[in-house]
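Prompt: May I have another protein with tokenized structure?
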Amino acid sequence: MLAALVGAGWVATRRAVLETLRAEPGYRAEAVAFHTTGWNLVGLAVLVGSAVTVSGVAVGVVESLMTRRRTLAALSAAGTPRRVLWRATLLETALPLAPALLLAAGSGLALVAPFVLHGMRSSLALMEPALLTGGLLAAALLATAAGLPLLRRTVHPAQLRHE
């Protein structure tokens, strides 16, 4: 959520500031290149933070599967198809995360709205945060899907034994 909050605000502000600089009468390519480099470095920090967050989602999914292995094995032994368990695990991540990401991205845009509305020359300043939010959700779902092969071992009937 923090990546969506900061990322949406960063993307919209970057677009608005660079468009404003290019629209100025004394437009100099060197000045815009200087500001573009600075904005790109901030974007790199947001990207690294997002990567750390997505890897945390993957670790959380693996931990969740290991914690519930006896329950999942009982569901599998009762006849629940493995595909249903996979979909349930994906939905377990997507359903709470999608509205939270939308709210965080909307909050990030609301924080930078005065800058964006003043410098906005095109609708791309609003489309890029939407793409970023969708990308974060897709990355979280991919991280969840990366933990799903563990589900095959987790639903083995041997997990039903009491330790």
